[in-house]
Amino acid sequence: MGLAFDEMKGHGGDIRPAYNELARWLAEVPPDVLDYRRREAELIFRRIGITFAVYGEADAQERLIPFDVIPRIMAATEWQLLEKGLTQRVKALNAFIGDVYNEREILRAGLVPEDLVFRNPAFRPEMNGQRVPHDIYVQIAGIDIVRVDADTFYVLEDNARTPSGVSYMLENREIMMRLFPELFSRHRIAPVENYPDELLATLKSVAPARTTREPNVVLLTPGVFNSAYYEHSFLADKLGVELVEGRDLFVKDEVVYMRTTQGPQRVDVIYRRIDDDFLDPLTFRPDSALGVPGLMAAYQAGNVTLANAVGTGIADDKAVYSFMPEIVKFYLGEEPILKNVPTWRCREEEHLAYVLDNLQDLVVKEVHGSGGYGMLIGPTASKVAIEQFRAKLKTAPKNFIAQPTLALSTSPTCVEQGVAPRHVDLRPFVLSGRNGVRIVPGGLTRVALKEGSLVVNSSQGGGTKDTWVLDR
């Protein structure tokens, strides 16, 4: 693993142009002011109740995600490159998912192994031959991006099911504007606060084709015990749509209705934050109390749009991810703008042999894992952990992929000792509707607050910071 690229100072130690104003400001501001504002931000977050829960912990109490008060800054030209690459990638993802459930041309061409799709736990046979409104499967994608030098960005993973974190992007901006107006006034920063309007326009645009009136959109949440419930209620409020649970909806004659005090109201688009398994007890898990009986029948009849579509989870699989360069070329006839991290598929004998020989240098991940769990970071793992992983790999190689340990770029971060570089990634949110692809400039920057740590996930002690894309 090489030396990490410093987004403020580059490799040479000279301040990069996008960071000039911030560097000047940091030199002027007394350290205790930064610390005071950091504590102030924490108080605001606590007061408005921005929390998340970590499942499976003995004390799964609500926690604050630590917020870093120093923004991450990107030049307009850097963002333009990302925007092009993200648009291309999400178009390819949509084409791939549509193809897998319909013509299956990519499987017939032998570019993606059939068993990788058909044996995938996220593959939904119920979607076979099912067209979705306007052929858009992934209306909201969260694509995780890492940077390794001035010009090179890699996609770390694709989140095509129910990506979360956008509420933090919006709240982080609001708090920065409130706490640091003087720093704001020294920059021209592209806005993110229009995201709810863009999201609502996208959701309305994918209403079933036969909808003749203003589409009725609702946000379906599993309820208050879900770890992302804060985000669900925040977004419903910002969108101006009803936040509903399964029990608030019912299906009659293959049409979805919402119970209201004025009587039943027809629903056209459901922005669902519930996994496929729990959506409809008549189709998926019969024990689900979170879903709506008959929802899939209404969906298959074309009377309601689910965003994102059922079965999009096949694109989140880390083994499928390794085929994304081929997927982009196959559907779009273009070279991928954003690179994939080189990936060894342990299901293939040669790849497995290489991984077993080099475990101490690699990151090994479960193909269906998320949140930074169930992975081995070779360079920092103990000998015991490496041997335990070796045994897992030999037993079930298909469940794992391996990647080199990337030197994620660093961004200046406010820590107890002052300002220091910490590793970051970025999750931009990509909206796809009948009106094309829209991306608000920026996204959620996650930061590994522990010195040297590469794990940015909030469930593993990471924090977030505001992402400023400079307007030209």
From TrEMBL:
Source species, domain of life: Bacteria
Stored Pfam families: CP_ATPgrasp_2
Domain Circularly permuted ATP-grasp type positions: 71-448
InterPro entries: ATP-dep_Glu-Cys_Ligase-2, CP_ATPgrasp_2, UCP005522
PANTHER family, alphabetized: BLR5612 PROTEIN (PTHR34595), SLL1039 PROTEIN (PTHR34595:SF7)
Protein name from the UniProt record: Circularly permuted type 2 ATP-grasp protein
Source organism of the structure: Pseudolabrys taiwanensis
Organism taxonomic ancestry: Bacteria, Pseudomonadati, Pseudomonadota, Alphaproteobacteria, Hyphomicrobiales
